[in-house]
Amino acid sequence: MISQHKTVLIAGSTGDLGGRIARALVDEGATVRALIRRGTPLDKIVPLEQLGIHIVEVDYHNATEMKEACLDVSCVVSALSGLDEVIIETQTLLLEAAVAAGVPRFIPSDYSMDYTKLPVGSNRNLELRRDFMKILDQAPITATSVLNGAFADMLTGMAPIVLFSHKRILYWDDADQPMDFTTKDNVATFTAKIALDDHTPRFVYIAGDQISARQLAVLMSSLTGQRFRLFKAGSRNFLETLIKIARTCSKSTDDLYPAWQGMQYVHGMFSGLGKLEQINNNRYSGIQWTSAKQILTNHIRFSKESAS
What we know:
alpha/beta, Rossmann fold, three-stranded mixed beta sheet
């Protein structure tokens, strides 16, 4: 049962998704406490304060400060973003503080396709989440991960799927493979409700829409009045080869989202390996799930207005 009269601590609220989750928690009636690294610029803190969120500046490596920040909290929500140092090390410090303070529930920073099914080594960033999952599942705390597939802005040009200027829908291997897309706002709202719900499963799965490349071609043709054709970029094996080449040629190893990491995520989508097998959208009433049609309609309208 959801209870709005709770205090929820969120880490990562100065980021895009974290900020949306913090606002959603406020909208749900929760008392929100934002864990902020000491020295964070004011321009990132002020918008949170204006929402009535209590700011707690800490040194993540100070166990006493971290524990005090977690006292009297019903759930800790992580929206931290990064590589090993953040997803493994910093989240572990956050988890240890939550356990020390007696916090009953923890939501890790997952918000992705179903990484539990991906082959080892197939996605660096999601492999880190699986590594942290092992640490989390050994801790004396109840955990719930929110898995949501791809963020819906991938349909608007963030990923080479809908090629607007070429009137093509690019796909790999199988044009009929369903893919999960969810807006960040939908993820934030659902996560806020999970944070206020005392009885949630280990994993919840949400998707604003599930659509294949072939269906996207039909949809875009209908929305624009121009024919969008399918464009097969290659097989799964060919994409795997391209990923290896791109990773080998990459000059930096500490970028969060290098090109090859994006390719790894696309592989998980078009291969179906990260597909969400069950959807829990109906767990809570009142959420307006945004479809691929709505996302693309809004993008097309905005593009026309910007060009005029």
